[in-house]
Amino acid sequence: MEFKDYSIDKFLYELKTDLPSPGGGSTAALVSALASALNSMVYSFTIYKKSFEKLDEENKDKMKVFAEKSEAFIKESLKFMEADRSTFTTLMDTFKLPKENEEEKLYRSKMIKEKTILAMEAPLNLAKTSLEFYDNIEFAVEYGNKNLTSDAIVAAILLHSAIESAVVNVFVNYNSLSNKEEYENIPNDCREMIKKSLERKSKIVKGFGI
């Protein structure tokens, strides 16, 4: 069963147990899905309503496009949840590979590295995609129904949490790589993403007077 078909109770139950997944990575993607869903709610209360009719044609068209992208990001976030579970489960399986002789040891090490990289890329891509979503939230804050501004702001707060959480999971896998060549830029890239995310989130929250 995919996470999107879980009840809230089922997800929380599996999250709290000793099952290998869901964990922090899938939870980070769930938080990004919640952020995009909240943002979509702003558009649902705006498009074709009074506040929408007051916009010029250019911003009406932009809002429709942003609303579609917001809906798409919900689905994409759910896919990131599955990607995290899949890559992490596969990585865990590689540690069970035999290591009785040199050939098996070399193969096991090779597979662990490959699957660690895949497990690292899943949250890394989530963080990158989430960072881009700030454009959407900023538009919702500026042009959406003003009664829903607080919901768009909560979306920004959640989005930053998703990005920070995703980066933590990137570092967990990055730090376990014995050979970090080709990936040495990842720590700085991640720190820069968190910096940019905090700046954009803070700007949105500050605009609400907090």
Structural write-up:
With 210 residues, the chain is mainly α. It has one domain: Four Helix Bundle (Hemerythrin (Met), subunit A), CATH 1.20.120. The chain has 8 helices and no strands. It has helices spanning 8-16, 24-44, 50-53, 57-94, 102-132, 134-143, 149-176, 186-206. Helix 2 (24-44) runs antiparallel to helix 4 and helix 4 packs antiparallel against helix 5 (102-132). The longest helix has 38 residues, at 57-94. The radius of gyration is 20 Å and the shape is elongated. The N and C termini lie far apart (41 Å). The mean pLDDT is 95. Residues 7-191 form the Cyclodeaminase/cyclohydrolase domain. GO terms for molecular function: hydrolase activity.
Largest sheet: none
Strand composition percent:
under 5%
Which CATH first-tier class would you pick?
Answer: Mainly Alpha
**Separation of the first and last Cα atoms:** 41 Å
Fraction of residues in H or I helices? over 70%
What is the N-to-C succession of helices and strands? HHHHHHHH
Could you tell me the number of beta strands? Answer: 0
Kindly provide the radius of gyration, computed on alpha-carbon positions and rounded to a whole number of angstroms: 20 Å
InterPro entries: Cyclodeamin/CycHdrlase, Formintransfe-cycloase-like_sf
Organism: Clostridium celatum DSM 1785
Protein name: Putative methenyltetrahydrofolate cyclohydrolase
GO molecular function: hydrolase activity
